[in-house]
Amino acid sequence: MKPFRIQPSSRLQDVRYEIRGPLARRAAELEKAGYEIIKLNIGNPGAFGFRAPETMRLAMIENLREADAYCYQKGIFPAREAVVMQQQTRGVKDITADDVFMGNGVSELILFCLSALLETDDEVLIPSPDYPLWTAATTLHSGKAVHYPCHPEKGFVPDPQEIRALITPRTRAIVVINPNNPTGAVYPLEVVTQLAKLAEEHHLVMFSDEIYDQVLFDTATHVPMATLVKKTLCATFGGLSKVYRACGFRVGWVSFTGEKGGAREYLQALELLASLRLCSNVPGQWAVQTALGGKQSINELTRPEGRLWKTRKAIQDAVTHSPFLYSQIPMGAMYAFIGVNLARLPHFDDQKFALELLERKHVLVAPGSSFNVPYHNHFRVTLLPDWETMRDVFERINELLLEYAAAPHPASVTATLPAPNSSASA
Questions:
Q1: Which residue intervals of 329-386 are DSSP H helices?
Q2: pLDDT tens, residue order, the chain (426 aa)
Q3: Pseudo-torsion of CA 404, 408, 413, 418, nearest 10°?
Q4: Which of 12, 142, 296, 413 has the most CB atoms at less than 10 Å from its CB?
Q5: CATH classification for the domain delimited by 54-293, as one of 3.60.40.10, 1.10.455.10, 3.40.640.10, 2.30.42.10
Q6: In terms of CATH architecture, what is 11-40+304-412?
Q7: Which residue, among 397, 83, 30, has the nearest Cα to 226 in the 3D structure?
Q8: For the whole model, what pTM was predicted?
């Protein structure tokens, strides 16, 4: 009798999302065995004690009676109008509520936007390192992800001329993630302006992922792409998950500006996809107007001596004092992308390191190669733990790297798992 086996779709063969992949599954197994794992692999504020502003929760509660029924497929009007008002405040004038789609987080909207756009082998320009959902979603919809480099030695800021050289007749869109995940880079006005002109020149759809638009440090300034793109279609993505620490609300939005006349059929296709899923989470949408129009409490966290600022400084100090590590200071977002000096550790491999750090030091990080880069000597951590926890994390990291340096053949260092006990360390 033939054994029962269900094969997954071949479309998923090259789809990767390692941030929640095998390492995260292994971390869950260790937790079940009794260990406490410090999870730095994803930017999940609620898991580190952050809470959404009280006013947002109250807005949801007060409107629960309005949330039982399906809403319009693009979202409730107050939420979409709040996005319009925010964009207008930033200098974006060619936008109405009809140009805004609410989604179950930005992730759903990324999938929609690429599904409605791509034919087989159409190309999308995506930064490297990237937020891997962009690459995965492009691949899932039979497109080709073409990665443009954001070099570490250039502060992870892209070079528009290098991007220009990658454009072909099959190129349909360019993705810009600013402030950047995973590197924390914030792009200067000159670069953003050149990227906008590049999209206009080649009639590319500009997908501007700005989910971290207000998570800024020191003197960093975010330039909204929609203020610059006029002669092609610009899609700006935002949401409640990061700036407002409300990941579980699952509320994101995409707003369309620029040249919309020639995009009418595309926008209708998006509305079709939005209709097929009926609508996005209605209770969470009632928090949008309050969030965007109220006090921007993220500033208290990113200002000097704020919690995110202090954790960022703890990482800077740890990297500065480590003989093995280097990094660009993150100027935005919630992450640091840390490099390992290959002159000191020539056999270093990020995937192997991440597994051993998890097994032996009970810290979960995201290997740099998970973000579609060609090198294997980086890892990403989130800034969300308090500074004391982060200092402890980097002590554990350096302990492991010291073992690597002392080993005759560092690549032979293997992970060992001690028997679980009730006094497992944090």
A1: 350-361
A2: 778 888 888 888 878 777 778 899 999 999 999 999 999 999 999 999 999 999 999 999 999 999 999 999 999 999 999 999 999 999 998 999 999 999 999 999 999 999 999 999 999 999 999 999 999 999 999 999 999 999 999 999 999 999 999 999 999 999 999 999 999 999 999 999 999 999 999 999 999 999 999 999 999 999 999 999 999 999 999 999 999 999 999 999 999 999 999 999 999 999 999 999 999 999 999 999 999 998 889 999 999 999 999 999 999 999 999 999 999 999 999 999 999 999 999 999 999 999 999 999 999 999 999 999 999 999 999 999 999 999 999 999 999 999 999 986 654 444 443 333 333 333
A3: -90
A4: 413
A5: 3.40.640.10
A6: Alpha-Beta Complex (3.90)
A7: 83
A8: 0.92
51: tokens are: 């809470």
The enclosing H or E element of 30 equals helix 22-32
Residue that has been written with the tokens 């953003």 in this structure? 192
